[in-house]
């Protein structure tokens, strides 16, 4: 968590993967069960800033035996030291699989290259931002992964051809909890009032990412006033 | 972190001491010490590591964990610390303690490199 001089709403603390997933008890167990029921091919659906990437960042490392990633900037990384699937998540050993994880950009709608040679039967393809793909490319990915026995987990703003595993949205209480956790160690920012937060969430149509960016600016403004 | 000069200028020798308290020796696996900078703000993150030292269990256990250990390095010419609205550049000494049960503890101690500059 942030120290007292940091802005608690900077990317360093709020980017997907930096925030711990907040959900009802047993959420991941239910998610696994639904995913397994649809033969490990499903989509996480929700609007901008509803937590889709944060959910992936928390869920995929639990089920990936090894991981190869390409982020939205095109940077590639691999991790061969992923932890075993927690026993609380599933008693089925078939849940664990090697994973290729792609964060998609709009520029890739037609040109996306999927490293199929890394994907064998039973391995997992994660597509973060499926709606970025052209209609043709979407159909191609779904068909080819089906033929090769590759599991699919994707995020999208709208329902897809795959079964929807969960629909995400940001409630006021969730936003309050996220802000509370982020400002735990900060004195100035602990004064952020909840009513204001509700208005911001409405203003940004439930996009928590934009709300947090707003709060970043507010913290900076407060600090300027304090310095004066 | 036991001691560290707060304000430093490029080319100056950074000297600091650290010690481990309230950690059971049986649990300790290794320690990483870095002198590094990172960006903080609304955009993407960047980091740069100026000094990195990994200390294995054997070396750590050669002395008492709570005994101060000293490290030093010469600081580079850039990037200088900066406190902007959209971007901050922060220098720190970072300790990462890896435990045998897989847990990791981390502590940062910030310092300024150069004269602190801010947005007007």
Short description, anyone?
The complex is a heterodimer of chains A (228) and B (120). Chain A has 228 residues and is of the alpha/beta class.
Protein described:
The complex is a heterodimer of chains A (228) and B (120). Chain A is built from seven helices and seven strands. The mean pLDDT of chain A is 87. Chain A has 228 residues and is an alpha/beta fold. With 120 residues, chain B is mainly β. Chain B has one helix and ten strands. Chains A and B meet through helix 7 of A and strand 4 of B.
Structural descriptors:
heterodimer, A: 228 residues, alpha/beta, seven-stranded mixed beta sheet, 7 helices, elongated, B: 120 residues, mainly beta, three-stranded antiparallel beta sheet, 4% helix, globular
> How would the global form of chain A be characterised?
elongated
Tell me the distance between the termini of chain A: 27 Å
Order of SSEs of chain A: HHEHEEEEHEEHHH
Strand content of chain A: 15-25%
Protein structure class of chain B: mainly beta
Low-confidence stretches of chain B: none
Based on secondary structure, the structural category of chain A is alpha/beta
Share in β-strands of chain B = over 45%
- The number of distinct β-strands of chain A equals 7
Q: What is Rg of chain A?
A: 19 Å
| Overall pLDDT confidence of chain A | 87
Query: What spatial form of chain B do the alpha-carbon principal axes imply?
Result: globular
Specify the biggest β-sheet of chain A: 7 strands, mixed
Strand order across the biggest sheet of chain A? 3-2-4-5-6-1-7
Oligomer: heterodimer
Helix content of chain A: 25-40%
Helix content, binned percent of chain B: under 10%
Q: Characterize the biggest β-sheet of chain B.
A: 7 strands, mixed
Question: How far is the first residue's CA from the last residue's CA of chain B?
Answer: 32 Å
- Poorly predicted runs of chain A are none
């Amino acid at each position: 968590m942030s120290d007292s001089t940091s802005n608690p709403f900077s990317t360093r603390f709020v980017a997907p993967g930096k925030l711990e997933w907040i959900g009802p008890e047993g959420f991941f167990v239910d998610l696994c069960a639904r995913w397994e029921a649809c033969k490990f091919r499903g989509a996480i659906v929700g609007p901008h800033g509803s937590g889709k990437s944060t959910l992936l960042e928390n869920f995929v490392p639990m089920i990936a035996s090894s991981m190869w990633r390409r982020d939205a900037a095109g940077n590639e990384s691999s991790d061969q030291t992923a932890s075993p699937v927690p026993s609380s998540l599933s008693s089925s050993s078939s849940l664990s699989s090697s994973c290729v994880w792609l964060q998609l950009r709009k520029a890739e709608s037609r040109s996306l290259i999927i490293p199929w040679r890394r994907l064998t039967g039973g391995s997992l393809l994660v597509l973060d931002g499926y709606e970025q793909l052209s209609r043709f490319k979407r159909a191609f990915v779904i068909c080819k992964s089906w033929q090769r026995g590759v599991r699919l987990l994707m995020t999208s703003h709208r329902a897809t051809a795959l079964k929807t595993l969960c629909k995400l949205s940001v409630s006021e209480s969730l936003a309050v909890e996220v802000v509370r956790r982020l400002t735990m160690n900060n004195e100035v920012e602990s004064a952020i009032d909840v009513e204001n937060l509700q208005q911001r969430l409405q203003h940004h149509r439930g996009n928590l990412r934009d709300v947090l960016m707003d709060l970043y600016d507010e913290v900076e403004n407060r600090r300027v006033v304090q310095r004066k | 972190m036991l001691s560290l000069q707060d304000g430093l200028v490029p080319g100056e020798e950074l000297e600091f001491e650290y010690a481990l308290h309230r950690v059971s020796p049986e649990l300790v696996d290794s320690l990483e010490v870095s002198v590094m900078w990172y960006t903080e703000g609304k955009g993407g993150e960047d980091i740069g590591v100026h000094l990195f030292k990994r200390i294995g269990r054997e070396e750590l256990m050669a002395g008492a964990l709570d005994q101060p250990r000293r490290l030093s390095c010469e600081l580079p010419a850039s990037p200088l610390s900066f406190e902007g609205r959209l971007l901050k550049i922060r220098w720190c000494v970072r300790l990462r303690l890896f435990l045998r049960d897989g847990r990791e503890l981390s502590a940062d101690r910030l310092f300024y490199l150069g004269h602190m500059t801010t947005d007007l």
